[in-house]
Amino acid sequence: MARKILLVICDGLGDRPSAALGGKTPLQAASKPGIDRIAASAMHGLLYTIAPGVTPGSDTSHLSLLGYDPLGIYTGRGPFEAAGIGLKMKPGDVAFRCNFATVDSSRVVVDRRAGRIGEPDTGELASLLPEVEIDGAQVRFRESTEHRCVVVISGDGLGSSVTDTDPGVTGRPIQLASGLDEPSSRTAAILNKFTNMVIEKFSGSHVNRKRMEKGLPSANAIIARGGGVYPDIEPFDRKHGMSFGAVAAEGLILGICRVLGGEVVTPKGATATMETDLMAKGRAAVEMLGRKDFVLLHVKPTDIAGHDGNAAGKVEMIERADRMVDYIISSCSGELVFAITGDHSTPVSAKQHTCDPVPLMIHSGGLRSDGISSFDEISAGRGSLSSLRGLELMPLLMGYADRNEKYGA
Amino acid sequence: MARKILLVICDGLGDRPSAALGGKTPLQAASKPGIDRIAASAMHGLLYTIAPGVTPGSDTSHLSLLGYDPLGIYTGRGPFEAAGIGLKMKPGDVAFRCNFATVDSSRVVVDRRAGRIGEPDTGELASLLPEVEIDGAQVRFRESTEHRCVVVISGDGLGSSVTDTDPGVTGRPIQLASGLDEPSSRTAAILNKFTNMVIEKFSGSHVNRKRMEKGLPSANAIIARGGGVYPDIEPFDRKHGMSFGAVAAEGLILGICRVLGGEVVTPKGATATMETDLMAKGRAAVEMLGRKDFVLLHVKPTDIAGHDGNAAGKVEMIERADRMVDYIISSCSGELVFAITGDHSTPVSAKQHTCDPVPLMIHSGGLRSDGISSFDEISAGRGSLSSLRGLELMPLLMGYADRNEKYGA
Questions:
Q1: Residue where a domain terminates, one of A183, A206, A229
Q2: Are residues B23 and B64 in the same domain?
Q3: Is residue B41 part of a domain?
Q4: Which residue, among B384, B385, B404, would best test binding to A if mutated, counting the most A CBs under 10 Å from its CB?
Q5: For residue B407, is it within any domain?
Q6: Which of B301, B304, B332, B330 minimizes the C-alpha distance to B317?
């Protein structure tokens, strides 16, 4: 009988031996009795979420883990960020992730986050130009979390191979966007014109007058990056024949799941920061498993701790995730295929994404087990799943959940 | 920060249990404290240099290990042999590896190596016909190592699907080359005409008169095999974004590295025989690592010992390679990604290339390790790299050297 599937993805989970942890990885150093109790009767392996030697982003890796080859549909992070804040798009729309920024009179960027501006200022600024028409295309503009915002361009003949206007560093001017082909040149021209409109509109705005009075940097421009086209994508439920929901708090992951047609839930108290309430996520996942065939539970702060080089923080997040997992497993009635992995490695020693594969553990009643008593990168290297590629995960989970079809007779 | 990469390839390194070694493989039987000291903090796996079940040649496997799919560029060994002796070629040129041979008056081959002829006789003979024009194509002829020589044909409309003129055994006549398609038929006709010219020119030569006086077999013909077209190939440095050098002594490997645009060094004393000076190679590699991002160090005689069924000799070569590796590792300042593997297996029990995967070990400071204390075929089968394909090696090394680009955001 078909089983339900719970996939827990701890962002940036994979790590390397850490000097701060006596040469152990955070997963090795953490006390995680809940996960390790399952470990002993689970299958283990290492997962190259894209391919060996590829350092994945969180967007490309999540697509791959959910069974979508990013090579076919991924052109940039923009559309997923835009979907993350609830913007409706259609295939062919081009979206950019942007920052509210501070520029001087020569358009040189002096603060890439406009003094870490946030609500309500960002919402008020965005409302000055929510939607305009440029060169026959519709341009939508929305605030996102903190200093972030999104630009979506809809119209005929648009391309997404557009260079960033974000110079990436302070002290350099806003870059003129350019397109690598004819349709992308059209998009670039629209983005450049919209950037001009923003600068003109924001300079004398009520918000910025108030910010200047308080001595805060003026949010007098936007800088764009990560342009991508909204993909023409088969919804998850049709592709895999399973209803799909996700418990997540980070905009990017929410966006990816929305683009795939999933129901997304961010329970009260759950955030994309170290302060997130993981037990709230656990309860939401248990509730969702009552309604959905496949539930993705995303935990962000393991990645944050990795980027910060914070070994103790990563251990703590793993220990909190362990209590969440223990709660879910003990709360679920019926057979469940449970898998836990990462989307990529963010070693605390590297403070950035690396190509190291992530540990993967799959558990369900009655399956084989490896006799490995700890879920970690080193133990996983001895597991029976050996090494897998990201696109192989979904067929494997569906197979073990009795949700695949026999091939042949 | 980007690290340098040293890839040591011991030719034909992989083996099977050997009765002469009490059921151990040569790698298991050898005393190799230098390599095994690194082994304990390295990642291990088995590498199918082409694909499972494929018995690789040294040419196809080296191309694969260096990141070039041989299926797209490899048509025969000829061009790489020709490049190995320094012949300049351009894409589209067709090259053959040949032997100086002895034939009777009916062109029946009586000695495929003309009494293992060598310099200076081969050079003198080749100088009789260094370059001629046949059917509007340019034909170049050069002596190579020992009894070997090379024919390169340049011109329009040439193909490389040409059958060998070498009958492969004695007692059979030189074969008439034939082409499998129209352009290859043109090449075959030119090769047949050139073979006739050689036979005519060599029969009354000064060299052969002297050889007959000494009772040596006359080198009165050439027999050709391994025809291939010089590939239109992206240079290594452009393809991988790394400068490339190789320390090698065997013509084929030198040729492959030259075709890829690498700098090649054969230090004094380094040869493709059991008498090679491996410490000279080690010193050359250390020097080259000061100048190049990626260095290939090739060790030939492990393969020779395999072909000869010489278990003790293979063990000895591994022990000498161990001292070379130990010297290199202890001499290199700074972070280095170090990998050691083979290009294929040449088990002493088989005396030929086999499809067995080769052991692979990758080491660099701060990476994960498998806790495996010996570098050998059996231990590698338990390693975290599990089994990889040849084309996956270069991305993996570049990833661990921080020389890849993140895919996604």
A1: A229
A2: yes
A3: yes
A4: B384
A5: no
A6: B301
Contact across the interface for A17 and B369, Cβ inside 8 Å: yes
Exposure of B53 by Cβ count < 10 A (0-12 exposed, 13-18 middle, 19+ buried)? Answer: exposed
Alpha carbons B170 and B255: distance in angstroms, whole number? 29
CB-based contact B190:B139 (threshold 8 Å) = yes
Do A48 and A123 belong together in one domain?
Answer: no
The closest CB to that of B409, out of A51, A77, A349, belongs to A77
Last residue of a domain, one of B203, B229, B255: B229
Q: Which of B222, B189, B191, B223 is nearest to B205 (CA)?
A: B222
Residue B97 domain-assigned?
A: yes
Cα–Cα distances in angstroms (integers) from residue B2 to residues B242, B245, B337, in the given order: 10, 17, 10
Counting the structural domains of chain B, the total is: 2
Residue A297 sits in the same domain as residue A178: no
In angstroms, rounded to a whole number, what is the distance separating the alpha carbons of residues A148 and B43?
A: 41
Closest C-alpha to B134, from B97, B188, B80: B188
User: Within an 8 Å CB–CB cutoff, is residue B57 touching chain A?
Assistant: no
Closest CA to A356 of A366, A344, A367: A344
Distance CA A66, CA A64 (A): 5
Please tell me whether residues A185 and A298 are part of one structural domain: no
pLDDT tens string for chain B (409 positions)? 899 999 999 999 999 999 999 999 999 999 999 999 999 999 999 999 999 999 999 999 999 999 999 999 999 999 999 999 999 999 999 999 999 999 999 999 999 999 999 999 999 999 999 999 999 999 999 999 889 999 999 999 999 999 999 999 999 999 999 999 999 999 999 999 999 999 999 988 999 999 999 999 999 999 999 999 999 999 999 999 999 999 999 999 999 999 999 999 999 999 999 999 999 999 999 999 999 999 999 999 999 999 999 999 999 999 999 999 999 999 987 789 999 999 999 999 999 999 999 999 999 999 999 999 999 999 999 999 999 999 999 999 999 999 999 999 8
CB B112 within 8 A of CB B170: yes
The answer to whether B147 and B117 are in contact (CB under 8 A) is: yes
What is the sign of the dihedral through the CA atoms of A193, A195, A199 and A202?
Answer: positive
Q: Verify that A151 and A279 share a domain, yes or no.
A: no
Cβ within 8 Å, pair B368-A356: yes
A32 or B335, which is more confident: A32
Model-level pTM? Answer: 0.93
Residue in B363, B368, B372, B389 to test binding to A, most A beta-carbons within 10 Å:
B368
| Confidence band of A204 (pLDDT split at 50, 70, 90) | confident
d(CA A231, CA A256): 11
**ipTM of the complex as predicted:** 0.92
Long-range contacts of A120-125 (CB under 8 A, 24+ apart): A121/A207, A121/A211, A121/A219, A122/A147, A122/A149, A122/A219, A124/A205, A124/A206, A124/A207, A125/A100, A125/A202, A125/A205, A125/A207, A125/A208, A125/A219
Residues A245 and A185 in one domain: no
Q: What is the largest CA-CA distance in chain A?
A: 76
Asked if B153 and B133 count as a contact pair (C-beta separation under 8 A), the reply is: no
Q: Residue B331: how many CA atoms within 13 Å on its side-chain side?
A: 17
Contact A77 B408 (CB under 8 A): yes
Range of the domain at A387: 4-74+233-400
- Determine the average pLDDT of the residues in A145-160: 95
> CA nearest A71 in B: which residue?
B407
Average pLDDT of the segment spanning A312-322 = 98
Partners of B14 in beta bridges: B345
